[in-house]
Amino acid sequence: MSPPLLKLGAVLSTMAMISNWMSQTLPSLVGLNTTRITTSDTLTQISPKEGWQVYSSAQDPDGRCICTVVAPEQNLCSRDAKSRQLRQLLEKVQNMSQSIEVLNLRTQRDFQYVLKMETQMKGLKAKFRQIEDDRKTLMTKHFQELKEKMDELLPLIPVLEQYKTDAKLITQFKEEIRNLSTVLTGIQEEIGAYDYEELHQRVLSLETRLRDCMKKLTCGKLMKITGPITVKISGTRFGAWMTDPLASEKNNRVWYMDSYTNNKIVREYKSIADFVSGAESRTYNLPFKWAGTNHVVYNGSLYFNKYQSNIIIKYSFDSGRVLAQRSLEYAGFHNVYPYTWGGFSDIDLMADEIGLWAVYATNQNAGNIVISQLNQDTLEVLKSWSTGYPKRSAGESFMICGTLYVTNSHLTGAKVYYSYSTKTSTYEYTDIPFHNQYFHISMLDYNARDRALYAWNNGHQVLFNVTLFHVIKTEDDT
Predict the structure, then answer these.
(1) What is the rounded distance in angstroms from the CA atom of residue 202 to the CA atom of residue 198?
(2) Is the dihedral of CA 93, 95, 101, 102 positive or negative?
(3) Coiled-coil ranges per the record (predicted)?
(4) Rounded to an integer, what distance in angstroms lies between the CA atom of residue 195 and that of residue 33?
(5) HSE-up of 164 (CA within 13 Å, CB side)?
(6) Each residue of 192-233: pLDDT tens digit?
(7) Which of 15, 158, 187, 416 is the most exposed place for a label (fewest CB within 10 A)?
């Protein structure tokens, strides 16, 4: 096919696509007013990626509100569905308008080409008549060439008329698209903007109410453990890593302590990202070796068990000095009452929303777990609770809101099996499973700021998310 006919085929194909789109898509505009935004004053469940999530809600016999709220990963505000649909449709129409404009320019260009060819054809036709009248005076070769040229040009005669018709149709399409764009723009300005502002205010109101609810939350009860999220693979089979639960939001330093004994080196990283990449910011050489892996960083200081003793050390990262040390009376040490995996894990130091704690065992309590609340400055024991759970049968333990949660193993199949509330001095057996992905846990501690469990799992540094059940305090509560 000659070039003019190829161009014509492309134009006709494009026109067919435009006609098909206009017949199938434009009628759908009739359904634009079918979307409704419902208004409700009740708290509804929303995705954690879009806002706060209510885990459950109810009322207790005294009429108090009981609910669970999961803090969002991030706050996003989605536009109204109708507004988004209108905006997308308007974009499609604008894109189609641009395509038609390009097609129009191409058609006009080809139209001018055909007009020129029409003039040439008329001239050739006149010459052809002259050749027929006097064919004997011309060579046969020249005559044949002219005839072949004429045969190529003859099909363009009906094409000229088709181009004239197509040009008119494109002009009509341009006008219809222009009118439709104006209508859609008006709808978006008149309806879409109003609905979006209304929705935005409702979302802000809900978020404010949920934040107020969060401020009234008392300490929660552990309901579920999910994960883990593997942060890094490093170090030996045993170790500890942690962040400070009392640090500001901008302070995300990470501390790393490899091995459970014969080590005094603490490595510091400015952030989780630096920890993952291995970019150390500072190294500390402690004055004493530590025992076990159950250390804790709390309010800028490191608390750890001094090797081969029941002495607790408080070490300041800022000053690089030991601020306090105290013997934990009657506490077993040096693998007398460790967790099931051993490793001199006799004394477990931890922190939660209430404060600083030590978990250990004594001969006086027949090797069962003792919980002591400590003064963070002097390390003095403020109060102790004696449980009936054998320390040697515990895989690991951690404190959340004054309640000790104990796992039944450090190996595959481990679960939170026992809990003891220091508030009520009561215990209960639980069944909260979690995934021990790398088969051997030698450190498991709760961070109240992150609402997460930090774990050292067979040379893997991992995080577990926790779900807590909260009770809302009312103004009548004292």
Answers:
(1) 6
(2) negative
(3) 79-141, 170-216
(4) 12
(5) 7
(6) 555 556 666 766 776 666 666 655 555 789 999 999 999 999
(7) 158
